[in-house]
Amino acid sequence: MTGTAGQQAKGRAGRLARLMPSGPSTAARTPFVLLVVLLLAGGLISLLLLNSALNEGSFKLSRLERETTELTDEQQALQHDVDSYSEPDALERRARQLGMVPGGSPAFLDPDGTVRGVPERATAEPSPTPTAPETSPAPETSPEAGGEDGADPSATPSPTASATAPPTGTASPAPGAPSTPTSPGR
Prior knowledge:
Elements: H1 2-19, H2 26-85, H3 88-97, E1 108-109, E2 115-116, H4 159-164
Antiparallel strand pairs: 1-2
C-alpha cells in the first residue's frame, strides 16, 4: 500500500502542479508592471512640468530685473533734471524769462489791519550776466611810433605788466586811492 499510496500522492501533486504552476503567473504580474510604469511616467511628466514652470519663472525674473534697471536709470535721469531746474541760478534765469523781478522790502499786515514795514514797488533790475575776462590782442607797433628800428620801447608790454593790468574798458584807480576787489559774475 505504500507503493500505491505514494503513486497516488504523486499523481495528485502532478495534477495540482499542472493546474497551479509553482511560480507567479504572468497574469498576476501584469497589474504590478502597469503600476510601476504609470508611477515612472507620472514622475517624469511632473518633473517636466516643474522644470518648465521654473524656467518660465526665471525668464519672468530676468525680464523684471531688466525693467527695474531701466526704470532706475530713468528715475535717476529725471532726478538729475529736477536738480538742475531747482538750482538757484536756473530758477532766477527762468523767473526773468517769465518777466518776474526780485521783490523789494517786504511789508506785513498785522491782524488789526496796520502795516508793518515800508512797502516798495518791485522794479526790474538789469539781469546780472557773468562776464568773461576780455582778452585784447597785444598792441601792434608801427614804424611811425618812433625809435630807430620802428618799435616804441614803452609800447611793448612786459609779461608782468600784462598780468597785473586791468582789463580793457575798466578805469584804473587813481594813485593813492584804495582799490576794491571785484569778483567776476557778481
